[in-house]
Specification:
single chain, 326 residues, alpha/beta, D-Maltodextrin-Binding Protein, domain 2
Length: 326
Amino acid sequence: MRSFALRVISVFCCLYLAIACSQAHAQAYPSKPIRLLVGLAPGGGTDVIARIVAAKLSEGIGQQVLVENRVGSGGLLAADAAAKAASDGYMLLFGGVSNIAIFPSLYKKLPYDPVKDFAPISLVAAVPNVLVVNPNLPVKNVSELVAWAKANPGKLSYGSSGAGSTLHLSMEMLKSATGIDAVHVPYKGGAPAVADLLGGQIHVMFDNLPGQIAYIKYGRTRALAVTSAKRSAQLPDVPTMMDAGVPDFEVVVWYGILAPSATPKTIVDKLNTEIVKVLNSPDVKDRLAKEGADSIPSTPAAFAAFQKSEIAKWAKVVKDSGATAD
């Protein structure tokens, strides 16, 4: 009996020590810089939003949050690296609709599971895409673009940040809706695609609004329509795709921060608290708004439910468009 009692006491002591160590670890976190993986190139809309949030988060947690661009396959490489990282809260993913919602339908085999391999922390921001053309293309609206494409079959080229990105699928949706033909030129991120659009190597592209505002305002690209249900406050004179005559065309690009799936709940909850503070701060909301983005903080549970609903939504888009990973 005495031996049994000692074993019980020993078990309780071990549990107490484990809980105490876990609490101490959470209290100490973070004790070094955190890396935030972004799957697209520096300078694009995704990168701009990630850096706004990372800079403010660094102030709140007392450690640097370093944005690290792991460019390739439209965000796949960054997501894969984050999924396989240590579950200690020091490598996070700035994920988006492409690599954690669209890719399961686009790729037959992903090297990671967008649901099982991640612990969602918080949604961050949502932005529309905008349809832009090189100003030398003789079109001023969506109808003229469609007419030009039909009059010049096989000549219209469009860029994207990679196969399966919303930039790619937005154009596939437009092609399906209007019957036009266009040649897809995928890039390793939105920024290099924009560079070729400015240089005239490609004619047209959908891009995240934050990365395009300056180019549009200075006349370096011409905006034809935004993909949100309502017009953007940053571009009030630019119609929505539905206003421009393309029915049921709505695409909203969203971002969120995730950790590897085995990350302790205490760390996930602490990060959620700090990220929500950042996203509710007036200066960050204002900076995001100026970039054409809306702040959308959430709980981890709400983010997880939203992600699953988006996976189902985009599965239908991918199927209807016939898009595949190049």
